[in-house]
TrEMBL record:
InterPro entries: FlhB (IPR006136), T3SS_substrate_exporter (IPR006135), T3SS_substrate_exporter_C (IPR029025). Belongs to the type III secretion exporter family. The keyword Flavoprotein does not apply. This is Flagellar biosynthetic protein FlhB. Pfam families: Bac_export_2. It is found in: Cell membrane. The chain crosses the membrane at residues 41-61, 104-125, 157-175, 195-219. Coiled coil: none annotated. It comes from Virgibacillus byunsanensis. It comes from the Bacteria. SUPFAM superfamilies: EscU C-terminal domain-like (SSF160544). It is a multi-pass membrane protein. Keywords: Bacterial flagellum biogenesis, Bacterial flagellum protein export, Cell membrane, Cell projection, Cilium, Flagellum, Membrane, Protein transport, Transmembrane, Transmembrane helix, Transport. Required for formation of the rod structure in the basal body of the flagellar apparatus. Together with FliI and FliH, may constitute the export apparatus of flagellin.
Amino acid sequence: MQLQLNLQFFAGGAEEKTEKATPKKRQDERKKGKVAKSQDINTAFLLFFCFITLLVFGSFFKTNMATLFQNAFSEYIQWEVTESAVHQVFVSSTIEMAKMLSPIMLVAIIAGVAANLTQFGFLFTTEPLKMDLKKIDPIQGAKRIFSVRALVELLKSLFKIVFIGVITFAIIWFYKDEMMMLAFKNVDSALGFFGRIAMTMGIASALALFFLSIFDFIYQRYDFEKNIKMSKKDIKDEHKNIEGDPLIKSKIKQKQREMATRRMMSEVPSADVVITNPTHYAIAIKYNEDKASAPFVVAKGADHLAFKIREIAKANDVVTVENRPLARSLYDVIEIGDVIPEQFYQAVAEILAYVYRLEKKA
């Protein structure tokens, strides 16, 4: 009975990941270099464009290769084997081979970059290069080897080998009669025939691999989406991390309100008049033609805050005027720092005129 309860507890503890990944989760995974991609698309791009390059530059490769062999068997073979001679042969051969291979290498780089850009756009990250002991963990390695994903990859590889093997065999079978007659042709014709067969099989294999890679990309995308799914708790935790803990946020807002209140109270002594309700509302108004074209509010409050405003005004000899409808109306429609709306000009002007008369008499 106790064992059953423990099993139920652990089963309920791990929350099932049923929700789609949030944009932040996707961005975090992308920064780690984890994106949905098919290696077969890279291989198909590479094979196709490399064979196209061989087809276009075939005569260039043939000429350079023939020149290299001609020099080797007609000139280099007669040289005395010395250190300088070996160095010269090595340097000249390397330069010729570099000339031949440079178009293929350039096309291979462009094809690899294009294949990745096609799948997931531009991505540069150093996260996969960081040291991670989990990668050399034998237990984790054994789990990966004997996992469902490994079995799927094995079946995919076998299917690709069979599919491409059938295509290449079909091409050879199609040209079998011409292949049987090669014994009656010269070397150039035989090499040309084998070159055409190789190009045909290479391009056909690349196209077949590209066709299979479309399905592989769909599977990789499905598997990626499945692996980055989140539980409802994960989404809540992420939201909490982004927005901040509600308790901390409330404390920050409280501190901000306290600081704003202190700043507001420090402006009350400079006000010209405080209009009150008289107990529920208090609006401190100041007129300074250098700052604004009309009187503006420097402080306002209700209930306890209104009481504090009245206290500060009294302590600093700021005139307090009771006008219930005006105080209530101003409190509802105006914020601190705003100028008085036009519809209240006359009422406020009368109060300021009254205040200025009192100050003049004083």
